[in-house]
Specification:
The chain is mainly α and about 110 residues long. The protein is about 75% helix and about 0% strand.
């Protein structure tokens, strides 16, 4: 949902949600305070997951700056916006691979 809202915000030239830091979203709360921490904090994948999650948010937030300053549709910003979203997607893929690995590590199959 977070990524979808980031794309929609750019398309509509206004932020459609508060793009808070990575500790306040559902995954962040799960990771830092919830079942994620309780159940998976001893796995290696859990320990590296935060970096990728933070980057997903960071790249989306970088694009929100173009909305804030009114330059989201400036042709000069197009490549940067696309690059930020490309990197966001890559880090998201890394994040979900780590989540799969976490489950495997916890079950002893990694």
């Amino acid at each position: 949902l977070y990524k979808s809202h980031a794309y929609s915000s750019i398309i509509h030239e206004k932020q459609i949600q508060n793009f808070s830091d990575h500790t306040m979203c559902r995954i962040g709360r799960w990771y830092f305070n919830g079942e994620g921490k309780e159940d998976f904090s001893k796995t290696q994948a859990y320990k590296t997951m935060d970096t990728h999650h933070k980057l997903v948010h960071g790249f989306a937030q970088e694009n929100m700056k173009f909305i804030d300053d009114g330059t989201v549709m400036d042709i000069d910003n197009r490549d940067t916006i696309v690059s930020n979203f490309t990197k966001m997607e890559s880090e998201s893929g890394n994040l979900f691979e780590l989540m799969d690995t976490m489950v495997l590590e916890k079950s002893g199959r990694a």
